[in-house]
Amino acid sequence: MGSVLAATTEPGVGPGVRADVEPGVQPAVEPGAVPGVEPTATVAELRLPVWFFGFEGLLAGAFDLLRAAPGCWPALVALGAVNLAVSLTLMRGRLRLARLLWRGRGTRKVAFGLVGLRVGSHLVLGLLGAAVTGALGHVLFALAMGAVTVALLAHVQRTALGALVAAGKATA
């Protein structure tokens, strides 16, 4: 199933020529066979599942989880390793979108916004005399940060996929 780009049409002659092609018949070039020209992917092929953003949500709440239960760091390290393994294996075909998302301005805004939300909310709560000090408060804060992270990353993905469709680099 290789590409058919040889100048000759004789079966079995030259690199890349299939033996099942009749002499004189020009075979169709398979999609993706032309170097430098990628076939247009569909949005469904590029879309990262929302559950995948759960890893990032968990990592966004890691600070508060560690404050609530300092002994949970091995579990967070293990989940980070699982995130990396899933990224490099199951989601390998979708890494193109992931790279675009991480390089995108919208994702940087989300990252800085989440840091600002964390620092700002802890600062404001501290100034109001309602600083988060208990384990339950930190767990609830971690859940809130995780939910906000997943929602924002899903929004950034929708926006990025819409831009790819508009630019003609993906089909709906």
What would a concise description of this structure say?
By secondary structure, this protein is mainly α.
Structural class: mainly alpha
What is the first-to-last residue Cα distance? 27 Å
Strand content: under 5%
Major sheet attributes: 2 strands, parallel
Order of helices and strands: EHHHHHHHE
Overall 3D geometry?
flat
Task: Please specify the SSE layout and strand pairing.
Blueprint: E1 41-42, H1 43-46, H2 50-60, H3 62-68, H4 73-88, H5 95-103, H6 105-127, H7 135-166, E2 170-171
Helix pairs in contact: 2-4, 2-7, 3-7, 6-7
Keywords: Membrane, Transmembrane, Transmembrane helix
Transmembrane segments: 73-90, 110-129, 135-154
Structure explained in plain terms:
- The protein has 172 residues and is mostly helical.
- It has 2 domains: 1-39, no CATH class; 41-167, no CATH class.
- It is 59% helix and 2% strand.
- It has a two-stranded parallel sheet.
- The two termini are 27 Å apart.
Keywords summarizing the entry:
7 helices; 172 residues; mainly alpha; 2 strands; 2 domains; two-stranded parallel sheet
